[in-house]
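We were asked to recover a plausible sequence for a given structure. The inputs and outputs are reproduced exactly as logged, with field labels preserved.

PROBLEM: sequence recovery
POSITIONS: 197
GIVEN STRUCTURE:
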């Protein structure tokens, strides 16, 4: 299965310079947040494949006009072509904006999903906006990762953790596209990235 991962910054290659058939090889698209609804609607229309998304901290307009043809998997566990995908949008609370959570609030969200995770026999891909604490996050309050994500990795050992929020364009020498955490490959989907599983 080939999956297109997108987050944070619309890819001019896929949008401005789109050519018919560019997305035909993908089986699914996952959005880790902070993208224009019109961009996601465009991608799902051109690809004619499932597009699953979670909220980034800047996705406040989705409540008025969500991406058309796409499925929000916020606080859900879904199965697509046999792949179990868990959605946990938002980031660490740094002001009073939408889709921001304290460590305690995020831990509570995960706890509410335990039965679903048990019934599904675990999870293959976790899709989040925020990074995992210590794995691709940054020191400022807005871009810190969640400690409870480490607990989720330890307990369920997903094959992949896909996140956004930490942009490649920040120019930080700390940016890493792929980081290994035990058996879990952690992938920053900033811009676009192709995952084959």
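RECOVERED SEQUENCE:
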């Amino acid at each position: 299965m080939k999956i297109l991962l997108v987050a944070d910054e619309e890819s001019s290659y896929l949008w401005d310079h789109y050519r018919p058939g560019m997305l035909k090889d993908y089986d699914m698209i996952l959005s880790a947040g902070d993208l224009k609804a019109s961009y996601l609607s465009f991608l799902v229309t051109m690809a004619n494949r499932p597009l699953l998304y979670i909220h980034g901290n800047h996705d406040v307009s989705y409540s008025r006009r969500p991406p058309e043809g796409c499925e929000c998997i916020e606080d859900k566990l879904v199965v697509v072509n046999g792949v179990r995908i868990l959605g946990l949008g938002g980031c660490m609370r740094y002001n009073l904006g939408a889709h921001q959570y304290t460590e305690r609030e995020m831990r509570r969200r995960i706890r509410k999903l335990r039965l679903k995770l048990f019934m599904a026999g675990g999870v293959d891909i976790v899709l989040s906006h925020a990074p995992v604490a210590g794995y691709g996050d940054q020191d400022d309050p807005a871009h810190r990762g969640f400690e409870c994500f480490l607990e989720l990795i330890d307990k369920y050992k997903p094959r992949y953790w896909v996140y956004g929020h930490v942009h490649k364009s920040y120019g930080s020498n700390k940016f890493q596209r792929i980081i290994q955490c035990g058996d879990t490959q952690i992938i920053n989907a900033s811009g676009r990235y192709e995952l084959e599983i």
